[in-house]
Amino acid sequence: MLGKNIRHERVRQGFSQEDLAEKAGLHRTYIGMVERGERNITLLNYAKIVDALNLAMHDLMKASVYPPPPPEANIQKE
Known about the structure:
TransReg_Diox_bact_type; DNA-binding
């Protein structure tokens, strides 16, 4: 959830993973791993990311911050 919210906000603001990583002082691969849920995020790094996105700490913690994609987006066509 948190990684997806970070990705959504990053894309909404027009940043690449590299842009966000540079602004936050983190490595690009770390940003990607957090967004995909492959890496746990520390509170310190979370603070760096929300600061780089000009958000408050609680802004990305809500489950309903960004709605899930519509069900038809997950349907595979044969």
